[in-house]
Amino acid sequence: MRQIFVFILFFLNSITSFTQKVSFSDSLDFSILTISPGKELYSVFGHTAIRLIDYKNGHDFVFNYGTFDFQTKGFYFKFALGRLDYQLSVERFEDLFQMCSFENRTLIEQKLNLSTEQKMGLLFALIENYRPENRYYRYKFFTDNCATRVRDILTQNISGFHWNNLSKVDSSKTFRQLYRPYLNSMPWILNGIELLLGPMADKIAGYDVMFLPDKLKVALEYASISNVPVVIGEKKLYAAIPSSVNNPFFTPVLFAFFLLVVAIGIEWMPKFRSFFDNIFFTLVGFLGFFILILSSISAHSELHSNLVAGLFSPLLLLWIWFNEYKKKLLVLYSSLFLISGFIILSLFLTQDINSFTYITIFVVLIRIASNIVSIKFNKNIWFLIFNKIGLK
Hints:
The longest helix has 28 residues, at 270-297. It is built from 13 helices and ten strands. With 392 residues, it is of the alpha+beta class. It folds into two domains: 28-170 and 205-238, endopeptidase fold (from Nostoc punctiforme) (Alpha-Beta Complex), CATH 3.90.1720; 252-388, no CATH class. Residues 1-20 have low confidence and may be disordered.
């Protein structure tokens, strides 16, 4: 076998802002880098990358599939619509290490047990991926991200590569069960994500359990190439300094219970009741309308067919625009029918609805019922209920 398998020239155009020609020898080592979760939302699930060391030429590069440009026009809008491109970039390992140190994130390396031929095949695949026409891809939270891209390039370009014992990596759990622990300290962010995700989040992850960098790392520990373990060594290159996590006291569930108390108590404050309902119905209707539009037009399949859009009736947006009682009653009855229908539907479809949503919907139903009674009978709903059960 030749000492030099390949002499490759290509340009590195990376986030480290350097451009130079690079040649590779056959004296290579590949490893998988796993970075622990960070504090920012985009880093809260951790990160995966591929490290390439060329001992003869003194190269130490990281191939990073998780690069995106915050300066992209309409960044968050494109992200929500599933039209934001991620890309493969290349950076010096030293820069990645400094980032982990600065952000206090643990960095773990798993060295891969590859033959020279397998290393060359993986190198060719990475270079092919890095071509300008190939380096960009559409990010998918569960199925196409920095971790799944690393999983796929290993699987597709190393003959005999096999993932074993995925059941030990929680492959039988749903996507929702898998991502929730990462957001326990961010209940408001978790609740926002829960509102937007549809029933796909409640599918069994299976092979795609490796969408999480931590799970990919564990899966690699069981993986093999022709019955030989693919990982021949694991090393912690940087250990994060432990820090305390302060969970917020005022959580979405607590806020929902606060709304419940207000929704009941507001009946005895007629001066504020109309103002509260105008604001509350408008916000609920807008949220339902927003979720409906997003689940309909987003390229993210994770957001499709979201039952929450119906539970937060978009029809309530019309409430504030109608002054006639007949039209207001039409909005109330239509919303009551829509919400009730979706509650029944949720019993048969596999979409996990969280506590905040259920409590908030209960608040919506209370305010709808209160306004129906107020308009039709000019009575306080609680007065009627207490009178009916013999309490005055």
